[in-house]
Amino acid sequence: MLDVVFGQATDPGKVRQNNEDAMGAFVPSSRQQARSHGYLFAVADGVGGLDLGEVASAIAVSEVTEGFARAQEGTMLVSLLPRLIQYANAAVHDATLTLERRGKKLASTVVLCALRNDQAVVSHVGDSRCYLIRNGSATAITKDHTWVNEQRKLKLISAQEMAESESRHVLIRSLGPELFVSADTVTFTLQAGDVLVLCSDGLHGALGDDEIAEIVSQEKDIDLVANELVARAVEVDGEDNTTAQVIRVRGVERVGMYRGRMYRLPS
């Protein structure tokens, strides 16, 4: 069966007193639940400059993890994750309708990663990222929903201009501001030895892909790896809250489908 271990860490950084990042996970309690539901990991980053960012991110993580736990057995992850993000969006949006928060503006990013058998599904809104580290090389699975990234895709600015722009953190998509939000979702096949990293922009804004890959590829306790990754990002920059979940895949279960029924493939 799928065998994973994970560690996580967060730090408010050198500038801010409060931490507007949030993280959570659903870990199956049995082999049966590992096959019927799988694992879910989530990182959210309350949008700075708005009200109650820590509330928005906490609502988002709570909504997606609880929704994942309630999902029917065998639900297709590729359709479940964007649905959970939409539920989270509605919950963050509706939080502004309560009497004590009326007139407040709440928003958050979110990135989700679900694992089951030998499959991974990643869904996100905003600029929190998921990386796949395989054979010592890091690949960003997500594409930031930022103004500068859109300008770069249209070839209106260079990669250097994008990296140096004062608008590089301006989001064009996030949870909360609108009644509906569109999540980007990708799927891929896992391999034993893969490492996945979910993180807020406080981490990927400070560390390059090569340094992320180097740190998480160490044969250390996974909690130590997560803490080292966050500590290094805070050391390099530290102007923002920094959060990371590091998921190490130790083994996968290969499966196939026949007439709608799942069966295990030989190793």
Quick description:
The chain has 267 residues and is an alpha+beta fold. It has helices spanning 31-36, 53-70, 77-95, 147-153, 159-164, 201-204, 209-216, 222-236, and strands at residues 3-11, 21-26, 39-46, 108-116, 119-125, 129-134, 137-140, 184-189, 195-199, 242-251, 255-258, 261-264.
Summary tags:
single chain; 267 residues; alpha+beta; five-stranded antiparallel β-sheet
Fraction in helix: 25-40%
What is the distance, rounded to the nearest whole angstrom, between the alpha carbons of the first and last residues? 11 Å
Estimate what percentage of residues fall within beta strands: 25-35%
CATH architecture: 4-Layer Sandwich
Mean pLDDT: 91
Q: What's the number of helices? A: 8
Could you give me the name of the CATH homologous superfamily?
A: PPM-type phosphatase domain
Q: Which outline best applies?
A: globular
Main sheet properties: 5 strands, antiparallel
Q: Can you tell me the CATH class?
A: Alpha Beta
Please tally the β strands and state the result: 12
Structural class: alpha+beta
**Gyration radius from CA atoms, angstroms:** 18 Å
Q: How many separate domains?
A: 1
H-E string: EEHEHHEEEEHHEEHHHEEE
List low-confidence stretches: none
CATH topology: Phosphatase 2c, domain 1
Strand order, biggest sheet?
A: 1-10-9-6-7
